[in-house]
Amino acid sequence: MNASAAMATPSSSGSTPGTAKAPRVTRRRAETRARLLDAAFAVFAEKGFGLVRIEDVCGAAGYTRGAFYSQFDSLEELFFVLYDQRAGLIAEQVRAALAAIDNPSDLSAFADRLSVTLLLDRDWLLVKTDFLTHAARRPEIAAKLLAHRAQLRSQIEAKLANSQFSLPREMRSVGEAAHAVVAAYDGVTVQLLLDNDHVAAREWLARLIGQLGLTTPRP
Question: No. of H helices and E strands in the chain?
């Protein structure tokens, strides 16, 4: 989601539909929002969500608290918008990467594309892990996280459904296979957060995907 799209999201200020107009989207407002989000990403990755203050984000972006509150009601709201933006971008990158595979029976290409695309950068994994632990204690926020994970799985599932891979007996559906791919990704990201070895993490993810039994082309 780009900054302009984010600006179009209705405010959570409590206004009922039709009673007030949303602030007009201008280039300056869009740029302010984008700079705040970029600064917040860096600060969250460095300090962790629980240790970040609004002043930290404003200082990193070069804005005052007034500029912050012209865009967001709270630090938590900014955090959610940032997660929405990045998670949506990653889901689209996964879709594009898998769509670029020409041979539908090439499991190696499938595994390589996924491992390169999913393991983007350690800063994102730090921010995403913060969001996960924050959501785990708040059911209404967990629903947002689950929706994004379902979006990612659906991109993988769609590619598997249109491929020439056969499912192993242990997998009852393409959906289960996609779930297993995401589970492998989750495990490898823990390793990456601890050792910061992208090469090893990509190799492990590709190997794990190759061990799911999706090796025999359909007749």
Answer: 10, 0
Give the Cβ contact number of residue 190 at 10 Å: 12
Whether 157 and 174 have beta carbons less than 8 Å apart is answered as yes
- The two tokens of residue 175 are 């959906």
First to last CA, the chain: 40
Among 13-17, 41-45, 114-118, 192-196, which stretch is predicted with the lowest mean pLDDT?
13-17
Q: What angle do CA 200, 135, 45 make, to 5 degrees?
A: 50
Residue 21 predicted with pLDDT over 70? no
Closest CA to 188 of 199, 172, 173, 177: 199
Distance of CA 36 to the CA centre of its chain: 18
- Encode 15-61 in three state secondary structure: CCCCCCCCCCCCHHHHHHHHHHHHHHHHHHHHHCHHHCCHHHHHHHH
Pair of tokens at residue 213: 């039994």
DSSP summary character for residue 151:
H
**Cβ–Cβ < 8 Å for 112, 204:** no
pLDDT in tens, 122-155: 888 888 888 888 888 888 888 878 887 888 788 8
> Rounded to an integer, what is the distance from CA 188 to the centroid of its chain?
16
Query: CA-CA distances (angstroms) from residue 198 to 8, 39, 87, 120, 182?
Result: 36, 24, 20, 9, 17
Q: What is the pTM of this model?
A: 0.68
